Amino acid sequence: MEIPSGLILEPSLYTIKAIFILDSFGQRLLAKYYDNTFSSTKEQKSFERNVFNKTHKTESEIAFLEGLTIVYKSSIDLFFYVVGSSHENELMLMSVLSCLFESLSHMLRKNVEKRILIENMDGVFLVVDEIVDGGVIMESDSQQVIQKLNFRVDDSSLAEHSVTQVLQSAKEQIKWSLLK
């Protein structure tokens, strides 16, 4: 979409069109689309294939394809992509990509590779949802994302313990301390 010079664009919070992660063969591992630019799964996969074919052998970090700005990063056998409109600030898109990669790197204990990513896919979706919600950037600081997700993990582990489990555990600890 070509924007005529002199045209002032209405500011919008909806800056991210898509985030997707592909393997080294260009196969989709995760994809979240935030608008109807590619309304069907077939169109999305075709777009992802085109993006992968254009980017998987290059060293640059930014691509322009089909009127969209795409920032990307590769790691071992994975390719991470953040897609915005053609007039979107590349630095802002890059900050989202960096936040995504750093958050996943921390969550996966620096093992950012396909097998580990697939084993932790539920956490990967949480990271993506914490960073972008409906195309709106919610967080671009990986430390904040990590902190929020650790808080959720801590909460869920406490919630899983019922009162009887806690009492049973306490009884066991008291019994063992008396027997020593």
Automatic annotation (TrEMBL):
<comment type="function">
    <text>The coatomer is a cytosolic protein complex that binds to dilysine motifs and reversibly associates with Golgi non-clathrin-coated vesicles, which further mediate biosynthetic protein transport from the ER, via the Golgi up to the trans Golgi network. Coatomer complex is required for budding from Golgi membranes, and is essential for the retrograde Golgi-to-ER transport of dilysine-tagged proteins. The zeta subunit may be involved in regulating the coat assembly and, hence, the rate of biosynthetic protein transport due to its association-dissociation properties with the coatomer complex.</text>
</comment>
<feature type="domain" description="AP complex mu/sigma subunit">
    <location>
        <begin position="15"/>
        <end position="151"/>
    </location>
</feature>
<keyword id="KW-0653">Protein transport</keyword>
<dbReference type="GO" id="GO:0030126">
    <property type="term" value="C:COPI vesicle coat"/>
</dbReference>
<dbReference type="GO" id="GO:0006886">
    <property type="term" value="P:intracellular protein transport"/>
</dbReference>
<keyword id="KW-0333">Golgi apparatus</keyword>
<dbReference type="GO" id="GO:0000139">
    <property type="term" value="C:Golgi membrane"/>
</dbReference>
<keyword id="KW-0968">Cytoplasmic vesicle</keyword>
<keyword id="KW-0813">Transport</keyword>
<protein>
    <recommendedName>
        <fullName>Coatomer subunit zeta</fullName>
    </recommendedName>
</protein>
<keyword id="KW-0931">ER-Golgi transport</keyword>
<dbReference type="InterPro" id="IPR011012">
    <property type="entry name" value="Longin-like_dom_sf"/>
</dbReference>
<dbReference type="GO" id="GO:0006891">
    <property type="term" value="P:intra-Golgi vesicle-mediated transport"/>
</dbReference>
<dbReference type="InterPro" id="IPR022775">
    <property type="entry name" value="AP_mu_sigma_su"/>
</dbReference>
<keyword id="KW-0963">Cytoplasm</keyword>
<dbReference type="Pfam" id="PF01217">
    <property type="entry name" value="Clat_adaptor_s"/>
</dbReference>
<comment type="subunit">
    <text>Oligomeric complex that consists of at least the alpha, beta, beta', gamma, delta, epsilon and zeta subunits.</text>
</comment>
<dbReference type="InterPro" id="IPR039652">
    <property type="entry name" value="Coatomer_zeta"/>
</dbReference>
<dbReference type="GO" id="GO:0006890">
    <property type="term" value="P:retrograde vesicle-mediated transport, Golgi to endoplasmic reticulum"/>
</dbReference>
<comment type="similarity">
    <text>Belongs to the adaptor complexes small subunit family.</text>
</comment>
<keyword id="KW-0472">Membrane</keyword>
